[in-house]
Amino acid sequence: MLRRQRSGSVVCPSCGKLVGVNDERCLSCGRRNPGMWGFAAAFRRLGQDFGFTAAMTGGCLVLYVAALLLDPSQIMGGSITSLLAPTPRSLFVLGASGAIPVFGLGRWWTVLSASWLHGGPLHIVFNLLWIRQLAPETSEAYGPARMVIIYTVAGATGFLASSLVGNYLWFLPRFLGGARFTVGASASIFGLLGAIVHYGRRRGSSAVGREALGYAVVLGLFGFVMPGIDNWAHLGGFAGGYAVARWLDPWKPERVDHVVAAFALLAATVVAIAASVLTGLPALGAR
Fold this sequence. Notes:
CATH class of the largest domain: Mainly Alpha
Mean pLDDT: 85
Helix content: 55-70%
CATH architecture of the largest domain: Up-down Bundle
Structural class: mainly alpha
Number of strands: 2
Strand order of the largest sheet: 1-2
Largest sheet: 2 strands, antiparallel
Shape: globular
């Protein structure tokens, strides 16, 4: 799949013009090494063929099962709300975020891992349904690689916002405060909504933008009514997704650079989960 091209022409990852695979610089935009050592075409094909939405759904499910198996003591649950719910201890091991992990324990990388974890069956089902609906729409508007960039960055900005408020504005009422301990894909989901809102405004598709904004407002208001909802993660995720979408610009085509960035962010997320496990397993064993 990543077979190296040693001769011929490729499309420049930055400007989309044809360049020689071994050219030192693109004559159109000045980019250095536009052939990316002969792997530019391979990365472009990879971005078209890889099922990012399926990978996100599968990753969330695998980590949910892993959280249950890490600490099965509450799988049967003491009540209907805790049935098949991972324990906070197992979620901590896999990379839960919030004021306590980020600021109390210095686990700053959890702003990347927490989007892939969920606290119960209803939590993961609800979020996966939204991912299945919004990720393909965002991919169609921006391209699959840029969708992953938006998804990942929005999750990180959402959990960073929640952790900051939870640590420094701890005196706020619970429904206005940040989270001490938090997981879930909803920050990234709000980021996808923010990207679709920007797409509607940038491309003149007002109905698309209004629908996405309506979903965001309804879900945001729902968060102030239901207990245990991380409203700052939602707000930070929406803001992060909107800002990244503006930078990526849906009027411009997706480039090979975006594919590389998407895989780099996914790799960083895997590293974040691995770091959480390696540093968190001793705490699980000490219970």
